[in-house]
Amino acid sequence: MNAARVSRSPSAVRVCLDARLVSGQFGGVEQVIIGLADGLSRLTDSPDEYLFLVDWDHKNWLKPYVGGPCRLLIADRSITGGRGGFLGKQQRRVAWYLGRRPASPTPGSPDIPPGDRAVQRARVDLMHFTMQVGSRTSIPSIYQPHDLLHRHLPRLLSPETVAAREVEYRTLCDQAVMVVAMSRWGKRDLIEQYALPEDKIQVIPWAPVIEAYRRPSAQDLAQTRVRLGLPDVFALYPAKAWPHKNHVRLLEAMRILREQHGLVIPVVFTGAQNGLDGTLREEAARLGIAEQILFTGFVDPVQLRSLYRLARLLVFPSLFEGWGMPILEALAAGLPVASSNVTCLPDLTAGAALLFDPLDPTAIAAAIGDLWTDESKRDELARLGSDRAAMFSWERTARLFRAHYRRLANRELTEEDLDLLGAEPLV
């Protein structure tokens, strides 16, 4: 059934959520959309509707998680057609957008693409841009700039990418009736960087997406170990090799552990590595630790859950994060975490992780070595992490979004809506 032709109650809110991406290329953003779809699909206690805008050729990744009040809405224009296609540039952002943008955009002439006609035909009340990219629209919109990396660490990006992001983020923030931050730290950052009104920014946390995935069986665990060629014990770092993910200092920490402490610790890296894994392999060879690293590439949901079960610990040395989804997933899986102490991560982990300075390879090595060798500390952090992760769920996040959708569409709010809107943020 075409979602645009579904009849609805006059009091219902119809929201379109932008989900136009190619699976495997967007990492945490893809997981966020899956989590939103899974959470909103559970809200069967109202007539509200949620349409997920997808490309016809790239919809199967989301289909299993869409049900109840949620439906797929097929976009008129393909994100991979014409001049586009997914190009291996920068953060592999949607090439349809990049193809329309001038090489050096200026704030005075933003080249943001127009909204898709399928959304107009669906007669939605709100447009929710779930990714950093978006489009021009006359429909009231919600925008989620997942982080402002380009403002804090511009040296890690090309000048063209920094300029393009600055135009896009500012334009979409200005257009939106609500801007979403995942934490209070993120809200403060948006206020400081873009001088946005405080009441325009709402804090809505993410949750562990692995709960939406099938629980791996013993056979799944065994097959994942064989198919990925996993070592018997290993540390896990699920992150694409963008410079801010700080893989190089992690490799240096592994060398320190080997040479100074006699600890030969295998590390498994997941994620589509965008070609930069070759540079990291060369660096590992130079450091004499090449046999300790394994790049798996993109893993499917069952393999991801299996990795969280099979690893001894998760290490997360990122230099900058808007949230830190792998950390929360590891906490939910009962996997002890050694994490960077930057941005919102101390608030996210709330004492349930071992923190370190990501600029100091010696500090990274000390944290990894401590967890690797101390079983009682791993057990303690696993317990604390499970308790912390239990505070977050995609259904709660979906209900909070629903309350905001109703508020922005001027619909009557329930008592639950009011309670959620008035609650203090979890992070």
Strand content bin = 5-15%
Count of helices?
A: 16
Shape: globular
- Low-pLDDT stretches are 1-7, 81-110
Strand order of the largest sheet: 3-2-1-4-5-6-7
Radius of gyration: 21 Å
Question: Could you give me the name of the CATH homologous superfamily of the largest domain?
Answer: Glycogen Phosphorylase B
Structural class: alpha/beta
Q: At the first level of CATH, what is the class of the largest domain?
A: Alpha Beta
Helix percentage range = 25-40%
Distance between the amino and carboxyl termini: 39 Å
> Largest beta sheet, briefly?
7 strands, parallel
Mean pLDDT: 89
* H-E order: EHEEHHEEHHEHEHEHEHEHEHEHEHHHH
Keywords:
alpha/beta; disordered N terminus; 2 domains; 427 residues; Rossmann fold
Describe the structure.
- The protein is of the alpha/beta class.
- The chain folds into 2 domains: 3-207 and 393-420, Glycogen Phosphorylase B (Rossmann fold); 210-389, Rossmann fold.
- Helices cover 40% and strands 13% of the residues.
- It has helices at 28-41, 95-100, 117-122, 149-152, 159-175, 184-194, 218-228, 247-261, 277-287, 301-310, 325-332, 345-349, 361-373, 375-389, 394-408, 415-422; strands at 14-18, 49-54, 70-74, 126-129, 141-143, 178-181, 201-203, 235-238, 267-270, 293-297, 313-316, 337-340, 354-356.
- The strands form 2 sheets. It has a 7-stranded parallel beta sheet with strand order 3-2-1-4-5-6-7.
- Helix 11 (325-332) links the parallel strand 11 (313-316) and strand 12.
- The longest helix has 17 residues, at 159-175.
- It is globular and about 70 Å long.
- The model is unreliable at 1-7 and 81-110 (pLDDT under 50).
